[in-house]
Amino acid sequence: MTAISTHVYSAFLIGTPDVELSLIGGDVSLDAGRWPHVQASVRVVADPATLDALDPRSDPRVRLVVHAVTPSGVQDRTFNLGIRDRAVSQSGAVVTLELASDEKLLADFRPLVDDVTPISYQSSLRAIVNYVLGKVIPGTALQASPAHDGDMTTYTDAENNFRDPRLVGSYIGAGCTVARDAVWPGIVDGVQHYAMWLHTPSSSDSYGYLLGPGSMNGMQVGETWIISATGRVNIAQGGTIGPRARKLVVFMDVGGYIEMQSLALPTSGVARRSLEFTIPQGCREVFIRAYHGATSGEVQWSRVRLTRKTTQPGVDDTEYFWGGKADTATYDYSWSGDPDVSVSKRRAVIDRRPELLAWRAGRSAIDFLHPLVQVHGLRLVCDEQRRWTLRDENYTAPDSLAIRYAVNLIDGNDKISRDDDTWCDAAIIRYRWRDYQGVQQERLDTFAEPGATRAVEIVKDTPWPGAGFAEYWVRRAQQRGREVSATVVSDWRAHAEQPISVVLTGAPTQVGTTQSVAFNFDDDRMTVTTRTTDTPFGAIDLLTGTIDGLTGTIDAL
Asked: Is 2.60.120.260 the CATH classification of the domain at 158-348?
């Protein structure tokens, strides 16, 4: 113990009730550049019954409690950590427990089957993180603050193989009059669209052809296709209503016809209907009908899409588009040939694929989430109270530390290194992965400061999340060129990422943030490492209070 402060440490095996452990020493540390954010190593003496309960395979937890009386007042702090490793010294019956914050639980959890649910949350990074946290640790979610979020919307290239998606041409059918209606759906995204108008029916098997009998229309055996269209009942159906009424129906000729039907349109309102079909062996032709299917009333169909089914998860193969649609910030649209009579093409401007948000079987929760948060310049952190936050490079923990030579410094070290891999002014992030077709993919994310002289390469085995992490890495690395390490009496208000100023003999005042804080129970001391910058004597950063609270002007300071 020191002469000016007392520190009392306790440890409890969390349960119902908690069991106090005989704590004889150890340490606990917090590090902004490490996951798990919090780690501890403690030594306890335990009886056989308690020893069994400390088996890390049963996921036990330990609460470390600190009560300190210091010249600045009473300080209390609690750490709730999971046991990761237990080692027993047979000679001294001493048990060494390695403890960690809950990021380690995210490393433990791996789904047994692909989970595409995160794709449904793609508009919000926070929603994706909360979904994963809830799967791994039920009831867990991010703290409300910091409120960082990010858009993870995915984009895919696609084709619409229906060569008249606006229905500007003429169509034939049977059992009713087939005409083109210009009133509905009318203007779609600034362009006139038409509907196939089925009216004056004479048969309950009345329909119009979307694809007429004849060739395979470019479809190959074994391929899966999807036909989709938007429809409505314009005048209520009556009389005899047949089994195909208000449906899309596909017929495939294999020497006899295979027939497949979509769900029927509702009797009122507008709805989109789709039908998936696979081309069978021996198929000689495919044709598709849009049905009326009653002997009175009117049915209309519009905005048709015919496309090969994608293998990527979460892709909507029924979303309507056409080659003449105006380009957007996310997609470019074009025709493969002449407008309204050729294949429509959609090309993603933003290269972020749905497979990024497919949580693949066997991939840990932490490995799934890391690239998603990093591309937005964020880190996912769990503190000693099991509170989860998303933190950016400007995050600062509350309070501040001041360490001074000949005041409270016990020992210190000032190191500057060019060879330390944590410092660079340029970065190449190489993403490598296999897509859902099994094709090896690779993308580069790069960033360099003007006049950069040292680049690092980081390889990540994960789908491309978009550019941004390289810049974040360099920005953060710029704060790591100089490392100051200082040992003082433990201040239990200290955190990683806390504002700090350090004065060492023979060095300029260092102002920055703490990188790590390591508390030692054996000698009541803590060692702080910092990311700092040189601050000249007299700088405003060294003044107490705030600029607003100063008298006079800045020029007079």
From this structure: yes
